[in-house]
Amino acid sequence: MAPPESNGSSRETIRKQVQARREKEREVHAKEAPAGPVLTSDDIRAAIYKEEVGLAELLIKLLSGRYCFDHAAGVWHRWAGHYWEPDHLREHRKAVDELADRLEEEAKTVSAGGAKFKKQGKTEKAEDEEKYAGLLREKAKALRRARTRNVVVDMSADGEGSLGVTGEQWDCEPKLLPVENGVVELETGRLRPGRPEEYLRAHAPTRYDPEAQCPAFETFLNEIHPELREVHAFLKRALGYGLLGEVREHKFLIFYGQGRNGKGVLLAALQETLGDQLFRTVVKELLLDQGKVRSSSGPRPEIMSLRGLRFATAQEPDDGQRFSLGAVKELTGGNTLVGRNPHDKREQAFKPSHLFVLETNFMPRAQADDYAFWERVLLLRFPVSFVDREALAPNERRQDRDLKDKLAKEKEGILRWLVEGYLEWCERGLDPPPYVRDATAEYRRDEDYIADFLEARCVVDDRVWPGMTPDEYLSLERTMETQSARLYDEFKEWAVDEAGFKKAPAHAKFSRDMKRRFPSVKRGSVYFGGVGIRAEG
């Protein structure tokens, strides 16, 4: 899919605009910071006679934008300045003391007013005010008792206009990246304060500085793909796109190489920069065929683990495992995902926000003729090997034992590099270079076991084509035909003896795959037209 419009602004123009704002950052933050809640005397007087309901109304007004309760997960959250975070210390309960303090303060003000009325001889008015002040003190005292506190807190989270949220609001704002010192508007590169009403929760534990540099990181990129500038640029666009927070490109990346080749170090640097709320390693079984049907009614915590992520990585499938084509399409397609954690009260639906990256030493098996699957795959080979001795082979480099520490110190620069990569993606899209396209095409060809079998053991009539109907085939002048069972016997022998299969695919699968390439006719048993077994010698 094409990237969004870049609004006519080049990356360099945007960077200059950001730089011009740097000196004004504190002023901007001060202007845009949410105002603190205020309980007026009128607010208090209107609510105080409604018992706990009124106290809950006051608490909602006091804590709105500072605390909220997620009904789906059963968890309170607190506003941390630029993003929401779970209220692990239960500070929302302590915040009830603020309401009690405000009522006591109001009681003093009312008492002072009553005293003035008394001096003016307005005895009845003075008595009314003193009764009201006493009621305020009584409610303040009640709020400091556990029973009333618990009731009021619970009521404050219930219903429309309360502190409660359904749980579906979290992290639904693509193009916004919460970081340690604000929120980055990716479309402009501008840093601004976070806003409670955006309900951003997943954030990077890194400050955003548009001028930060990462020389060790950029040197490392050149080492893992020496002199392949188009690969460096592609990697920057692809990883920058991963910041977006929604699925525009129905792709997933495969980082492939035989150990100590830098792919793990690269992903570790990204995780250090983005933190485990935005970048997380998930169970590899999400993408792989498990050979069993999952219960549709059970919890799906593995799906919930994807919520709010910008990057989801999986590591090291076992040799010979197969991709689950349905799972790959589900997790890279952009359609709504539905999951439930084991202790959640109900299922939650959310739009995916992640880019999937598989890090592997072994390429999982895949069906070569599944067009939708191969449209999603982008394979990047890591050809260099980093060794802890003198480099001997052309593809070897001496390992830098301190590299991870060096990259960790450059995480502000790496974040800047990623934001630039996003802007470059906006202008150009992913645009994979030949190095990536060719590797992906080679992977697909390697998975085409039928083509390998035909090349090794068969002869094929070039007048026959995939999708040819039996009638079209029968209209040809005499051509070769071979019984399906005879072909399968030949295939089984080839698969185990020459192709490295531990066990040949079942006859039924072999037949299905052959029918995609050759017409089948029934002559007592099934025959495939246009294919024969090559004579030995």
From TrEMBL:
Q: Which InterPro entries match?
A: Helicase_put_C_phage/plasmid (IPR006500), Helicase_SF3_DNA-vir (IPR014015), ORF904-like_C (IPR051620), P-loop_NTPase (IPR027417), Phage/plasmid_primase_P4_C (IPR014818)
Biased composition annotated in UniProt, kind: Polar residues: 1-11
Q: Which residues form the signal peptide?
A: none
Q: Where is this region: Disordered?
A: 1-33
Enumerate the PROSITE patterns for this protein: SF3_HELICASE_1
UniProt biased composition (Basic and acidic residues): 12-32
The SF3 helicase domain covers: 230-395
Q: What sections of the sequence does the record tag as coiled-coil?
A: 89-145
Q: Keyword annotations for this protein?
A: ATP-binding, Coiled coil, Hydrolase, Nucleotide-binding
MF GO annotations: ATP binding; hydrolase activity
- The superkingdom listed in its UniProt entry is Bacteria
Record bears the keyword Repressor: no
The protein's name is: SF3 helicase domain-containing protein
Provide the species name: Oceanidesulfovibrio marinus
